[in-house]
Structures are given as C-alpha cells and as structure tokens.
Amino acid sequence: MMIWLNIWPVAILAVAIGCAVPMPVRWLPRFTALVAVLLLASLFMPLLGLFHPADALALWFNITATVFGAFALWFSGPYVLAESRLHAWPDSRVKGYYLGLYTFVGSLMAMALVANYLLLWVSLEIATLSSVYLVETSGTRTSLEAAWKYLVITETGGLAGLVGTVLLLLGVGRNLTAWSLAPAVVSHPLSATAVVAGMLLATVGYGTKAGLAPFHTWLPDAHSEAPAPVSALLSGVKLAGAVLIMDRLFMLTVPVVSRVWGQDILITLGLLSLAVAASFVAFQRELKRLWAYSSIEHIGLIALGLGFGGLAILGALLHIWTHGINKTLLFYNAGTVRVLHHHSALPSSSGLLESTPYTGGLLALGATGIVGLPPFAPFWSELLILVGGVTQHHTVAVVLAMVLLLAIFGGITQRMPQWLFTPGRSGKRRVTEAWPLIIPTMTLGVLLVVGGLALPALVPQTFHQAAVILGLARSFSH
Hints:
This protein is mostly helical. It contains 20 helices and no strands.
C-alpha cells in the first residue's frame, strides 16, 4: 500500500493512454488539457496525506517533472494543431504524438517517484525510448537520422548504466530489489574494485542519458528535430533527472570509496560540458540547435553544483527549476518561430521583433535570462553554484567555469541580434501570431521575471531537505 502511495500520480498518465487509444483525434487537445489539470492537482495530494514520495528529493523532482509536463501538455494542443495543418500530418501521426507524450511525461514522473535503483534505470529507459519516438514525429529524413543517432548512442550508454548500477549496488552490499534510495550501512561489501568499476560504467551510462560531455553527441540533433514540447522536456527535466540518479548512486559508494571520487567525476563532466557549449554556441544558425548547446552548458552547471557540494547543491537544485522555466520558454518560442515562419534558421528567420513582435520579444526575454543576467531567475541559481564552489575550496574549477560562461555569454549575445533585428529575406512583412501559442510562453516569461524563485519560497523545508539528501553541509541550515 505504501509503495502505491509513493507512485500513484504516474497512473494518471497510464489511464490517459488507455483513454486516448480509442478516442477520436479531434478530442485529444481538450482531453490533454484535462490531463494537465489533473497532473497539477496531484501536487496538492501530499497536503491531504494521499501521496507520500520516498523522500524530499523525490518530491522536489516530481514537482519539477509534473509542472513542466503539464506545460508540455498545454502547449501541445495549439502546437500540434498548427504543425499538422502546416505539414499535413495524418491522424495516426497526431495520435501517436499524444500517446508518446503521455508516456514520456509519465516516465519522467516515475524517475522522481520510484524508490528502487533498477526501476529508476527502467524509468529512464522508458523516457529515452518514448522521446526517441517523439523526435521522429515529423517523419522527415533528418528527424529519422536524429532519432536513430539518439537511440544508438543512448542505448549503448543505457547498457553501461545498467551494468554499472548492478555492480555498484552489489559492491556496497545492497539488495537489488530494495524499495529504498537512502544510503545504508555496508555490511558485507563485495569489493572496492567492483564499486569503482560500477561508478565508471554508471558515469558513462547516466552521463550519456544526461547529455554531459563527452557523451553529448546525440543531443544537438535530437533537440533540433524534436517537436518543441519534447525538446523542452528533454532539456528541462530528463537531462537533470539522469544526473540526479547518477549522484544518488555515487552517494551509496561513500562507505567503500571516498566521496571525492563522485565529486571529481561530476566536476570534470561539468567543466567539459561548459567547454563544449562555449566552443559551439557562436556558430549555430538554427534556433533550436543553439538552445540545444545551451542545454549542454546548463546540465554542466547542475553537475558542477552537485560536485562542489555544500551551498552549491542548493544552487544546483534551484537551477533545475530556473533553467527549466527559461529553456522551456525558449524551446516553445523556437517552435512558434518555426510554425509562423516555416523555419527557425538564419538568415530566413531574422527580424523577428518587427515581423512577429510578441514572439521576438519573448525570444529577447528568454535569451537575456539564459545567459545569466540579473534579475532573472537563472542568475540566482548560477550565483549560488559559483559561490558554493568557492566556499567548498574549488576555486580553480569556479574560475574555469566563469571563463567558459563568459565565452558562452559572448556567443549567444553575438547571435541574438541577427534573429531579432536583421531583416529577413521576405522583408519586414508582419505575420499574424497565434495567441494559443503565445500565451503559454508568456506565462513562462512571467515566471522567469517574477516567479523563478517562487517554488523554493513556497516549499522551503522540502527544498532544503532535498539538498541535505544530496550532501548539503548542515551548517547551512537555518
């Protein structure tokens, strides 16, 4: 019974899939909106004692997955309608998209709620396979190539992740079927060698799923070809979830090997990810591909925060939320640009502020936030990560990160005026903007400006306890 109380919100998506299969396609947008409302309502169930996540970190990530999953369902209604009209999608493709999206959102919630490490791996695999299917939704040659690349690379990593998870759990003497994520006292560890081998394989496996460099090669193609709501969920939720699972596994190894091993792995991958993003952002001429490289940057920042420890863990958890708001806005905006202009690449989609002022304005807002400028939400989480790194004596890594962040800032600010101001090939002709596409993105813009920090303020105890689970020094408690 207690296990059911841990995970029952996932059943909302399972029931939705069962209802959607026989449902006429024309009903799906309204039905999807109802599913989104039910998901948001499930967030209030802990207050009634009807829902008990395994721990505070599970609750925190479930809130993130649920909120952004509901946004994806909301935005999908007008977005899929516009795409299906523009590209003449058959009804089977539209229904397939909705079924795939329900599966994807449900698996992301399961990544938060299941309290068994092997089932976490299964949830991440379902999230991967459902998103591979969704990447290929448009049915073009480039989307098929991107989906195939995504599948081959991440499933190779998935196999390494499974072997690494099993080796690590056996190495620390844990029962593979235990319904608990908390570290336990090691009674009879197999060997430190097995634990180290498990850590390395888990790094490859979960690092690939998270898109951390050097395992990131699938990510730019998949993000640029996926439907906008799918790209947003990939960037804002799935990547962060994979890193959190990896860090949870590293916590289990502390009785057998030093905590420094896991920290150094996360810091190294974080810096490599920043370096990759800094090397490529300035050369991107397609909007979604630009934000894909930005996602590599920000998942690197989250890894850095978890690796630094201390106050930086608060920053990493906050950054999952603030980056999710900002990047969801930007991917929805890029999807809107594609729908309105039939493309989002330079030079054809330039001059957005004049041709589509609301869409261009939201792009300017989102781009200003994603480069880390105050007073937008990502600035505060990035600041916590960097300050936390200094307080934990990772000064060299912090300096390197700041240099790379400045390079990324320069690359994005160099590109943005070309989308916003340069007249496109079609001149400065105004394009009618669809309000059903604009309103969800505007809502995210409001959250970015005034509500980016609202969630930690509303649930401060949960937020702090989640950080403590990941190793936050208790000296930071109030």
